[in-house]
């Protein structure tokens, strides 16, 4: 719709729009009264605001997940945009607002993502890898197409997990075309499963946190466990060479032990999968930061990129591809 | 018996005894002829020797696992003892020699080790932990009491895996007595299972190598897989808190990600298990080196101890405990 | 006594009790007035509170070391408990309160600690090590049984230094029982002396800071200096092998140069002492954090444990040992 | 042709073929006589051999670059194949052998490589980047299509530098198709120039060594110098934003300062170029090792891949793409 | 003049003096009003102050670079001195104040610095090194004698760059006197040019920031570019050995790749230059901190010195040199 | 004298001269006979040679420390010069040769070194520092002017320890002249004592090894012990500020804990001493390597300089200082 979004407003401009409450933390002000530290979100991004002298009713009403109508002013505070609140009210039935409409989403629709995944599964010509991928996909289907790929950092949006997977499949296809000796079915199977354990490690698409299993076991071990379970169900030997290869590709995908892989890549496809994963995560992290940076300026320093900051050029480049 | 062992001989003393061939690598000498680089072993340790101008018959006869009667002279070569070979012959039936009698063994007998393990299992009072430990022990019983705890470094002898486990249980008992808030059943269950995956990771007690599953998955993931399998068989929920705790204790036992644990200790018992494992491995590695070092000298530098060398004191200490 | 302690109160409950002022830092509020940032303490732990618009009389009265009667409300501020102050008054003679009664103390009484240390000294059968330990103990007796083992982190309570030492002696006894080749007298002498330099490095039991000698020389060099002094007094050769061993065990007890040991363990007992020290410090640091964590939750991240956080399980374990 | 190559022979098989002398190092044997340590090469790979009791004539004749006819036997020495020499003679005119025919070459012909590069230059639509790339290409054309991409490790063959560049351009095209916000002209210009400094850093295609400029300045600074020179020649401002971007992309392409980049990637295209470079180098290094590894075995440990070894699977995978 | 400077005042003393506005950041207070976070400076150092409820006129008037007359009180806030503002007014013509008079300056006058540099240039007896140094000096003369040597940390004052260079020349002279085999002309040429790129990397003497070229290329590459340009202008071969040596000495002066040198010292003079640079920077950083530390106290922790803090002794030392 | 030294001969030139046996290691050849691996030395450097088929008489005669008359030929073996032995005989009385005349020596005579040290002691105007330095110097005088400064690496020659100290004093003088705020007496006292512990850590000037005290305590703790002893003898308080400063300067002189300093520099003079020590050691290590490198070549990689190799330029530089 043509309605203005959070990031369509300029600094020092008055704002009036529906947003969803992403976070609402109650704190104690120095004057002893309570205030709510809000994070609001719509599909254009997230912004913070402070609600001073909050009553118990305010605290009860304005909770995470609610759609609210917000009036205020966008301002700059220590270099970051925030909202100075004028007024806040809950959306009512008559407003016809749905919370999930406000969440950022993957650029591809769920049905497009499903179709891409299905095509890739079709290309896994080794029967056992194919059966295992399908068995696991079926059990985690709902979460796989709904969850983000990470709590923060990159692909932290609804459908992010499947979108990250599909992008990696595209890159894998191009790489296999370049290097004919890579086993494409193994690489595809590995990519589809590599982050599937996040459907157990994370709590969901909204207010994402780590589950206890996520904290104590981690998504790498969790998906390996699923593969073993699939083997039992499908009567496939989990210690045959083809299964050891598939499991290794997934266990090793963080590339180094210090990043949480219990083994490091020791077959070609494991090394390649790790590179593709790293490449897509880096580009998405960078792009997520640069799209909120003004041309001619450096971004904030990005924790997940060794604390580097990145420059968004002023110049326009004529790109025959897109122009 | 009163027969002299390999390390009962002095340098420059003639030797004549039965030993087992631990390794026999055929190489090409600079004169173009083949020679065999032997490693001989008896229960006192290992020593090397070169067999020059080896015929094809020699190569076929003197293979790893054979018992041989060796005459020669112990000498020092670049600071290490070796045997200068005079003559070598295969043991014959009449010699009444059995290869396994020559391998170093754990200081406790197999039945003592079994009894100790059984007592510890008995002390695991949580029913699900107890059932899982027993289910897995039963499946790996033979290997568990036969395998070494590592390919080299420490406890690299027959029964080493069970002996390492039993020593850790002793230390755990003392630590639990000191700190009453440690959950002893969880610590015991974790200790018994923590290295059980080595029965799959390693190839066996003689000429130990890594299996393909050992290389590509590693013993930490391999034992976690067994626990999941035990849960299926015993109808225990592998994602209940009690199971997450047990699995975490084992997954985290290397203490740091860079040492191959996919997660780092995040519960008390995981931290304690890691310390006990490290303590026993360090002491055994040190002792194994120091017992071949002359009093008043430094040992060789030990790779597994950050390349440090260790001093064996000359002085005798009157120890009321042992004297 | 049956009086409620600081950590017996729940969040949002009104509190009224005597506590000791552990810290009282005067700061400037944004309105230009002074306030006092208090840390209060009793034997159950420490908690902070802010005292706004402090007069000069307030500042003079409510200083570190004073016992005060406090009324207020326990609240949660950014996930940590704090006190919202209603009123504060100094304890008066009639209240019969003594500051030192409010400090956390070692679980063992001073006389129990002394008895344990004496027994261990008795077991040091090497005459020279025995005489040196007794000579140094006598010079630092008062501080040794009074000081904490560290400024913060672990055993940061009255008597913590001696308690840490005694716990390590218990563990050492069990370890020597398991590995008969360890020289128990050397290990005992090393343990008793290893942190004795902290009686010079630290300023005392209350408001503990580092002394200039502590900063510029460190407790490891300070205790080595004492041993040299003991040798002079007792006419023992400080460069004899037995003295080099004792001094090495102590100099190397941090295990690695980057942790401040000028030499790394190069004899067996030095390696073992380092492990015991590390084990006890880790367990006490963890336990100190977990006892203030709610079951089913993760603790805060612990700086001294590589920034890890730890989970306190919900489940109860039937422990035959303690139940 | 159907003639057998070096790596078409099995171990212990007699060999008889023309090869080129890649290296010929004269050394002193223990008997005081000289021998030549040869490295022979043909398009299938490299192998070593020792030539005992070499006369001065032998030493003068059999020098690097010469084609020789070799008879001998392929053998295994410490796990690596080598040739036991029977006889060696120089190729004569009548043999119609040319040294350069024996060198391994890029899988694409020089004219194909040129055509690919030209197409990519055509796609650099920014006029200044385009002119600079063409100016530099023209000056280094001969070396660029002739040199290897590295002294050892990867693409260490004739034409390797251009082949590495062309492969990276293919990958870049696929990546730009996936992420439309990447400036393709900048990425292409960066890729074509990124390793061009190696034409100055290295000595050539045969017996490749580092030049003095290569050692003291390195190829990254050397190519930046060329860009500055191009700017002078073409009257382009080297400190304009478009030039700073191009130079940064190239200076940062090693990704981290410790790998020799004076600055780390701080624009999107620099980050992407670094990933593509790393990906192609890793795959080529791996493939170069795996093609000399037997199926079902692990390769040697690869220095440039953190000392990891890699497994070559036994199983065949039906790949719809290539089958 | 005898007027009191900022650091001549004690804590809690009223202040009244002219200072220059070094920084003036506008922020939003919690009450929704704007305030200015000031940094004031005079030749004795820098101090901060907050200006509450700032009007738009205030914001427009009190900008960086302005001289202001300030009345207030020096106070301690979280261990650091700050000014509590009473009143602030712009200096007027009648006050006869010039902003640049308030900036800290190098201890040597500009003409002294010039004379020292000229003498050193005179000692560069190799004709090509001499011509290049003079060509570059001439182009950057103004900035070289005006700029600081770093944005913060050390020599962050007007003329700091030339002063740092002159001090290094003094040290180099003493070192060459001690080690006669060092090539003094090469060392001198390297020192004069080593940080000259900072005249491009930094924005100037006031409110110093990094330029885009500084961020994307860095001062090490920028000065190498100038040398290449000088070679072109003076018709000197930039790839001759003497030029490679000079360029290497400068490229390597950060000593290690991780500190931004694309190559590490590989000739004697490069190693020596790095040590001299490091020594002078360390001493100046330390001295800048210690002169604001009270005797008998430790300084704050210094980020650029691995986070160490430094002690300023109480004792006076009779120094025959200065007393 | 005009006699040719070891390094006056060219490769492939016959040699005939007196040298001293620096090392004589008896090893077993592959033919089962013994040979002696010699290291010969004269004041120009060290060279190796192998003596084949050594008889027991040879082994007894040609031991370390003996002067021998050697005829043979200098050759290159794997890039390093060695001697091919023709004949070897012990020097006889009539040859008038003394072993110590063949050892490399410090460039300054012992009496010059003593005079320099005495002058520096004279400049230590603080009475207590002065008395301590003189007390310690007196006890270690003989060794101090005789020992090397290190076992290998740098200043590994007779008198090297005192020469290293004197060079550092020269540099310190120049640095104090540049930075008037450095306490010269403290720096001088620190320099004279900083490596004095090496007279206990090392075994002597010939065939230098580490003593047991050197291994287990290290020279840093050993000299601190001497200072404490000096305090006792001279009735100086070792915990006064002036003594803490002196001891800190010495304890911290390795600069970082990982290099064996139990504390890191926390006063100005400690930081400066560390830099001077590092500078002199680096230059001497480099020079020792470069003087055996041909102009226009790179040296071997130097272990003590992070494995870097160094280039010795071909060009001659006209140095007004020395020409």
Automatic annotation (TrEMBL), chains A, B, C, D, E, F:
Question: Which CDD domains is this protein grouped with?
Answer: HDc, YhaM_OBF_like
Keyword list (alphabetical) reads: Exonuclease, Hydrolase, Nuclease
From the UniProt record, which GO molecular function terms apply? Answer: exonuclease activity; nucleic acid binding
Q: Which Gene3D superfamilies match?
A: Hypothetical protein af1432, Nucleic acid-binding proteins
Q: Which InterPro entries match?
A: HD/PDEase_dom, HD_domain, NA-bd_OB-fold, NA-bd_OB_tRNA, YhaM_exoribonuc/phosphodiest
Q: Which domain of life is it from?
A: Bacteria
Q: What are the transmembrane regions?
A: none
Q: Enumerate the PANTHER family for this protein.
A: 3'-5' EXORIBONUCLEASE YHAM (PTHR37294:SF1)
- What is the name of this protein? 3'-5' exonuclease
């Amino acid at each position: 719709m043509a309605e203005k979004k959070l990031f369509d407003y300029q600094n020092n401009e008055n704002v009036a729009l529906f947003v969803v409450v992403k976070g609402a933390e109650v704190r104690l002000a120095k004057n002893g009264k309570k205030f709510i530290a809000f994070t609001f979100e719509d599909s254009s991004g997230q912004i913070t605001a402070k609600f001073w002298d909050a009553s118990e009713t305010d605290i009860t009403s304005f909770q995470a997940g609610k759609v609210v109508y917000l009036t205020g002013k966008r301002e700059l505070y220590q270099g970051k945009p925030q909202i100075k609140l004028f007024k806040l009210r809950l959306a009512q039935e008559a407003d016809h607002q749905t919370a999930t409409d406000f969440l950022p989403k993957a650029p591809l629709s769920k049905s497009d993502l499903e179709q891409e995944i299905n095509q890739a599964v079709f290309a896994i010509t080794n029967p056992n890898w194919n059966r295992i991928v399908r068995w696991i996909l079926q059990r985690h289907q709902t979460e796989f197409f709904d969850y983000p790929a990470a709590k923060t950092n990159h692909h932290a949006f609804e459908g992010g997990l499947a979108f990250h997977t599909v992008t990696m499949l595209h890159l894998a296809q191009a790489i296999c075309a370049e290097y004919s000796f890579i086993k494409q079915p193994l690489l595809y199977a590995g990519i589809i499963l590599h982050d599937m354990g996040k459907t157990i490690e994370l709590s969901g698409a909204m207010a994402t946190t780590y589950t206890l299993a996520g904290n104590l076991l981690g998504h790498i071990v969790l998906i390996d466990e699923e593969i073993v379970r699939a083997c039992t169900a499908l009567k496939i030997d989990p210690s045959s060479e083809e299964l050891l290869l598939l499991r290794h590709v997934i266990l090793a995908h963080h590339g180094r032990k210090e990043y949480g892989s219990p083994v490091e890549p020791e077959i070609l496809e494991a090394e390649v999968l790790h590179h593709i994963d790293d490449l897509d995560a880096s580009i998405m992290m960078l792009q997520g930061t640069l799209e909120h940076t003004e041309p001619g300026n450096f971004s904030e320093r990005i924790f997940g990129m060794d604390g580097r900051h990145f420059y968004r050029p002023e110049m326009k480049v004529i790109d025959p591809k897109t122009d």
